[in-house]
Queue: 2 jobs
Job 1
Amino acid sequence: MDVSAVSASALTNVQSQAALLMQRKAQDIAASNAAQLIEALPQPAAAPDPNATVGGKIDVFV
């Protein structure tokens, strides 16, 4: 077997592993950023009580 073919195969393998590790790291960073953005969202306001008397009736004079 040719030495250059073996070293090219090993180099391709190392490059593939490095690319996979970089992709995983980028995905971890993106997940962390998404979690921080979700935590930064303000809490929604409480829904008004549907049984409240204010604004429940309209007086119409004809």
Job 2
Amino acid sequence: MSNRPTAPMSYSRRAPQASPNLLQEALQAKRQVIRQLVEGELPLLEAAAQFQAITTQLGTPIEATLGLAPTIDQESICRTVIGWVHLCLSDRPEHAEAISCRLESELQQHLSQAGSLQLPCMRA
């Protein structure tokens, strides 16, 4: 008998599946936001608001499609964006670390000034 864990046979409570084309478009849009953020064209809060708007337009969050818990609070959305930056720059670890630290500092500055975050409104 094998000691390997076995995967469940079925998932009865799966999130609704978004079409592959829609998911691809959302991924491309999020990559574009990350590119603009890394290049200094967008501040963190605006990038986070755009991420949230892309997810909202999708209807089914990418995270839910992948079986992950959806991101709800605005600080978590910012941290998700910072994580995407780090991942997208993983082939250049020093650059990824520098940009992530800059963004984390920006986030902490917003939190210390306001006590909470308010992302800008993004219209579809």
